[in-house]
Amino acid sequence: MFPFGVTFYPDQWPVETWEENFRNIKKTGFNIIRFNEMAWDLIEPDEGKFDFSQVDRAMDLCAKHGLKVLLGIPTSQVPPWFYRQYPNSRPVAQDGTLYPEFGPRPNICKDNPHYRKLAERLTRKLVARYKDHPALLFWQVDNEPVYPPLDHTTTNDYCHCEHTRRAFINWAKKQYCSLKKVNEG
């Protein structure tokens, strides 16, 4: 099978329309659908409280209509509760500007230890639940996994928070072993 498909976000449509939408996607000639890459809040509306019912339904409808799924692991955009629980997790520009709480994706410092722990937990739960689902064809690990500029007129890009600074220092120490070698490189 040559994968030929479309992105469709079931969670952005009324549940009553899903059956018809999936049927029409198949009728159009597509054989794969991509979804879920920004649905962390759908799956985990509150920290530690998981609800897979909508993803289950979408996956089952895809299987019913002969569609394969490129299932996103939704770690590029954290849910609203994340910032309330972990306020120091927002990316920081080199000028100290905090990334907007509800801005474009990705909206998280990927070096933040809370993010890493909870993103791994979410990933493991998704894989355990859907790894054998008949509609699953591929996993999408992340969607556009770079920190976007805070605004397109500046060079405020990449996270410069304390977590990222520490991660960079640890990487440089491993890579170069000494400051002298860094300066030689």
Task: Give me the CATH fold name.
Answer: TIM Barrel
Helix content: 25-40%
Strand order of the largest sheet: 1-2-3-4
Distance between the termini: 47 Å
The first-level CATH class name: Alpha Beta
| Structure annotation, total helices | 7
Structural summary, described in words:
This protein has about 180 residues and is of the alpha/beta class. The chain has one domain: Glycosidases (TIM Barrel, Alpha-Beta Barrel), CATH 3.20.20.80. Helices cover about 40% and strands about 10% of the residues. A four-stranded parallel beta sheet has the order 1-2-3-4, with helices on one face. The longest helix is centred in the middle third of the chain and has 18 residues. It is elongated and about 60 Å long. The N and C termini lie far apart (about 45 Å).
Brief summary:
The protein is α/β, with parallel strands linked by helices. It has helices at residues 18-28, 40-43, 53-64, 80-85, 113-130, 162-176, 179-184; strands at 5-7, 32-35, 68-72, 136-140. The model has no long low-confidence stretch (mean pLDDT 88).
